[in-house]
Specification:
One of its GO terms (cellular component) is cytosol. The chain is α/β, with parallel strands linked by helices and about 270 residues long. The protein is about 35% helix and about 20% strand.
Length: about 270
C-alpha cells in the first residue's frame, strides 16, 4: 500500500457517480491530501418502466413541469430517451432539480436549464423516482400535485461482498468508513460485524438478534462500541447519520453537505 499521511485507511461506501468521472471526486480529494482511500461501490440501480415514462414524456401538455430529485432520476430520463430528444414543449415548463450533480446532468445531457416557478401549478408534476422515495415529495409538499413514476430500483451492488473481502485483506492500517446513504449503510450492515469490527461486536450482534434479548436502551451497544479500537465511522448527511445512530453505532462525525471539500474538512477535524 502507498504511504499515507495518516495511519487510517478510508473506505468510501457509495454508488458510482452518474457523471462518469475517471476518478471519484471524493477519492481524489483524499488522495491529493495524502490519505489512503478506496471506493467500494455499495449500490447499483435497475432502471425500468421506460414505456410508461416515455409516454408521459411525450405528453408535456399534461403537466405543469417536472421534478428530478437525484442524479439517478436524471439518468432514468436520459436512458428512457435513448437517442431521441425531450419534447421541446418541456422547455416552456419549469424543470425542478435537487442537487448540483442533478442540475449538471439535466443541463449537459438533456439540454435544459433547471428553473423554478412561483406561479400556482394547476397540473401535476412528473417526478421520476426510485423505489425507496416514492412519496418523499408528496408527503412534504401538500400544495402541489405530484405524479410519481418509478424509474429505478436501488439494490446492493452485485460484487459488494467480494470487493470488500479483497480490500480488507490488503489493508493493514486502522480503518475509517464513510457512508453516503442509509440504503448504502443497510446494504453492508450484515457484513460489518463479520468484516470490519472485533469479536466483541460479533457477540453483541448475535445477542441482539436473539429474541430473548430485547435491549430497550442503547447503552450496551455503546459500551461495547467503546472497545472497538481503531475504527472511525463517518456519515455524509444527517439522514445517513441518523440511520447509523439508530443501528447503535457511534459516529465519529457527520458531514452536513455532500461535497468533497466538506467531507475533507470533517475528516481533518477529527483525524488531525
Amino acid at each position: 500500500m502507498s504511504h499515507s499521511k495518516s495511519n487510517t485507511t478510508f473506505i468510501i461506501f457509495k454508488a458510482y457517480s452518474e457523471e462518469n468521472e475517471p476518478i471519484d471526486p471524493y477519492i481524489s480529494i483524499l488522495k491529493n491530501q495524502g490519505y489512503e482511500a478506496h471506493l467500494i461501490p455499495t449500490l447499483e440501480f435497475e432502471y425500468h418502466n421506460f414505456d410508461i415514462l416515455n409516454h408521459k414524456l411525450q405528453n408535456p401538455h399534461d403537466y405543469s413541469g417536472m421534478v428530478i430529485t437525484s442524479p439517478r432520476c436524471a439518468r432514468g430520463v436520459i436512458k428512457c430517451l435513448a437517442d431521441s430528444k425531450l419534447d421541446e414543449n418541456w422547455l416552456k415548463k419549469p424543470i425542478f432539480v435537487v442537487g448540483e450533480t442533478t442540475s449538471r446532468l439535466v443541463n449537459k445531457e438533456l439540454g435544459f436549464e433547471p428553473i423554478g416557478a412561483d406561479n400556482e401549478l394547476s397540473k401535476p408534476l412528473l417526478a421520476p423516482c426510485g423505489n425507496l422515495n416514492l412519496n418523499i415529495l408528496s408527503d412534504n409538499i401538500n400544495t402541489v400535485k405530484f405524479e410519481n413514476i418509478e424509474v429505478y430500483r436501488t439494490i446492493p451492488h452485485n460484487n459488494l461482498k467480494t470487493n470488500l473481502e479483497i480490500l480488507l485483506s490488503q489493508i493493514k492500517n486502522q480503518i475509517g468508513v464513510i457512508f453516503f446513504s442509509p440504503s448504502g449503510f443497510r446494504a453492508i450492515l450484515d457484513l460489518m460485524p463479520k468484516q470490519l469490527f472485533s469479536q466483541l461486536y460479533i457477540i453483541l450482534y448475535k445477542l441482539n438478534q436473539a429474541q430473548k434479548f430485547n435491549f430497550k436502551k442503547s447503552w450496551i451497544k455503546r459500551l461495547i462500541s467503546i472497545f472497538i479500537v481503531g475504527q472511525k465511522i463517518f456519515a455524509i448527511g444527517p439522514t445517513t447519520g441518523a440511520a447509523i445512530k439508530e443501528a447503535g453505532y457511534i459516529l465519529t462525525g457527520i458531514c452536513e453537505k455532500p461535497k468533497p471539500e466538506s467531507m475533507l474538512e470533517m475528516i481533518q477535524s477529527f483525524i488531525e
